[in-house]
Specification:
RNA Polymerase Alpha Subunit, Chain A, domain 2; seven-stranded antiparallel sheet; four-stranded antiparallel sheet; 7 helices; globular
Length: 340
């Protein structure tokens, strides 16, 4: 959450509780403030490692309006965003006419602020394998864990039972591969997302015994607590042409790298290339097609979950976290202005 320190000479000084939280929230504030209210807005960190931010803004009431605007947009995103669910762990979203800074804020929260369980403290009790202790630790820490029943409370402060145990020795009668399936759970409400991850291979008479302790965390602390594998997003520019105008306009577009989607009322020309978008807009202006063509911007974002939560849950969770941050900042801003 962002905390307000002071406001003097049009400089609002704030402090972030989570590293880089300021970037997540302020870039969208800046974009909407400048675009919608023609307001002066700039910000900077005094030092790259500092958590204090200075915002240049001459009207805090406009800042309040911008936050209120963002809260309305978030509510619209929650209710009206087009979604294509490939499977539980893969979701594609289409944001219509929403600035990319806000979409990137959702993306940043997915990468850094969704709390999950991961291995944190790896105790090597016995290791007679060729692989060093540190490599065992790194490989096991990246094996994802999930909570089976989210309604059952787990005491993560109790280290006595908060671990998985790996205890294996290779002889002629056993398999010499070690997989995530060899990690035995000491808590019945937790399980590994994948049981077939290969960790290592033992030679004859080699033995490994490990206790792998876990706890909750967020990706901002370490990437092992990140709940997603990747979140690519790109901008799609769409030019809509009515049916009666297709024969006049389409020859100007057809030589470019475009997708054409037909419907009963006309066609939609799509391009993912920003340079191509500029060329197509120029075609409209030079040939006086502006009254015949409407264009819009859609942002496509894909959420690929590691598996602790499905992608749809993660999307709505990220929206909830972002909304709470803006509401909290708005509340602190109101209190600050009342006491000013």
């Amino acid at each position: 959450m962002l905390n307000i320190i002071s406001y003097f000479d049009n400089i609002l000084r704030i402090e972030e509780e989570i590293k880089d939280e300021g970037h997540t929230l302020i870039t969208t504030l800046q974009e909407i403030s400048i675009k919608n209210y023609d307001n002066i807005f700039g910000y900077n960190y005094k030092h790259p490692d500092d958590n204090k931010i200075e915002i240049l803004i001459d009207d805090l009431d406009i800042l309040k309006k911008v936050i209120e605007d963002i809260l309305l947009i978030i509510d619209d995103i929650r209710n009206n965003t087009k979604q294509i669910e490939i499977n539980d762990n893969n979701l594609i979203l289409y944001f219509k006419n929403i600035n990319k800074q806000l979409v990137n804020s959702i993306r940043r929260i997915l990468l850094s602020e969704i709390e999950i369980v991961a291995f944190d403290n790896i105790e090597i009790i016995h290791n007679s394998t060729f692989m060093p202790d540190e490599v065992w630790k790194q490989r096991i820490e990246l094996i994802p864990i999930k909570i089976i029943d989210k309604n059952i409370e787990i005491n993560f402060n109790n280290d006595e039972n908060n671990y998985f145990e790996l205890d294996k020795e290779y002889n002629d009668e056993s398999n010499n591969y070690i997989t995530s399936n060899n990690l035995i759970n000491m808590n019945n409400n937790l399980e590994l997302v994948y049981n077939d991850i290969i960790i290592n291979k033992l030679n004859l008479n080699q033995k490994i015994n490990i206790k792998a302790y876990y706890k909750k965390g967020i990706g901002n602390e370490n990437f092992k607590w990140c709940s997603v594998t990747n979140i690519p997003f790109r901008i799609i520019w769409e030019f809509y042409i009515k049916k009666e105008d297709i024969s006049k306009i389409i020859p100007y577009y057809i030589s470019y790298n475009i997708n054409i989607i037909e419907d009963e009322n006309g066609i939609v020309i799509q391009t993912f290339n920003n340079n191509c978008k500029s060329i197509l807009k120029k075609i409209n202006n030079d040939n006086n097609f502006r009254s015949k063509i409407t264009y819009s911007k859609t942002i496509q974002m894909e959420i690929k979950s590691v598996g602790q939560y499905n992608s749809k849950f993660l999307f709505y969770k990220a929206l909830d976290v972002l909304e709470l941050k803006y509401k909290n900042f708005l509340n602190k801003l109101n209190i600050f202005l009342e006491n000013k």
